[in-house]
Design brief:
The chain is of the alpha/beta class. Helix content is about 35%, strand content about 15%. Its EC number is 3.5.99.6.
Length: about 260
């Protein structure tokens, strides 16, 4: 993995947005996988600024979803489809017709998950997938002990994950218990994986994923298997890493790096 330590969340967002912009310049119809939550917001804000400035053309870009709650009605403001429309597509001016996502309100959730998995392959695969990391090391909603070969499927959320996500709802009782998530095996098929982690609360999970052993108990450690995985962390999220000096020197010495 490439480990990049940045001063703060805004710097991480700008760096990753630059990488996405370079991808779209070379491949205008690239399929970019997005993540939800507060961590990736600086990325989307930086991308929107580039679009407004006329520095980035996203007219042919395609966007796909990492995961979705099960059971929320269509149009619910906290469904991840609604969140992606609100935080990514609308600010960038990308049509909803360019968006791929699973149907969390389908009558047959297992079939909807499989159909979404197939749709990603039929679209030519994901060019760049954005990821966050949970405090327990999960990526997407692949909780600890998920199979490292798993495909898109329904998963039951741990109580800790529901507590972490309760801030987006009026109460913990409103947080769904199940989700459709891209499996770890599905995620690993993306051509470039970019994980952004910010804040001291993520420091231990980052250290285990980056410097710990490959383990289903820390799903994010599966990024160690990927040929092009980049982990961008701010100073707070890097506090538990043992090789920070090495990571800083490696990034600084790489010639002509303008992005990831």
């Amino acid at each position: 993995m490439e480990i990049v330590i940045v001063p703060d969340a805004a710097a991480g967002g700008e760096l990753i947005a630059t990488a996405i912009a370079e991808l779209l310049t070379g491949k205008p119809d690239a399929l970019v996988g997005v993540a939800t939550g507060s961590t990736p917001l600086p990325i989307y804000q930086a991308l929107a600024a580039k679009v407004r400035a006329g520095a980035l053309d996203v007219s042919r870009a395609r966007i796909c979803q990492l995961d979705e709650y099960v059971g929320l009605p269509k149009g619910h403001p906290e469904s991840y489809r609604s969140v992606v429309l609100r935080e990514v597509l609308e600010p960038l001016g990308i049509s909803e017709s360019a968006f791929l996502g699973p149907d969390g309100s389908a009558s047959d959730i297992a079939a909807a998950a499989t159909a979404y998995d197939h749709s990603l392959a039929e679209a030519g695969g994901v060019d760049l997938q954005l990821l966050g990391i949970g405090t327990d090391g999960h990526i997407g909603f692949n909780e600890p002990c998920s199979s490292l070969a798993s495909r898109t499927r329904i998963k039951t959320l741990t109580e800790q994950t529901r507590v972490d996500n309760a801030r987006f709802f009026d109460s913990l009782d409103e947080v769904p218990h199940h989700v459709i998530t891209q499996g770890i095996g599905t995620i690993l098929e993306a051509r470039h994986l970019v994980l952004l982690a910010t804040g001291e609360a993520k420091a231990e999970a980052v250290a285990q994923a980056v410097e710990g052993p490959l383990s289903a108990f820390v799903p994010a450690s599966a990024l160690q298997l990927h040929p092009h995985a980049t982990v961008v962390v701010d100073e707070a999220a890097a506090t538990r890493l043992k090789l920070t000096d090495y990571f800083r020197a490696t990034y600084a010495a790489k010639p002509a790096w303008q992005s990831l």
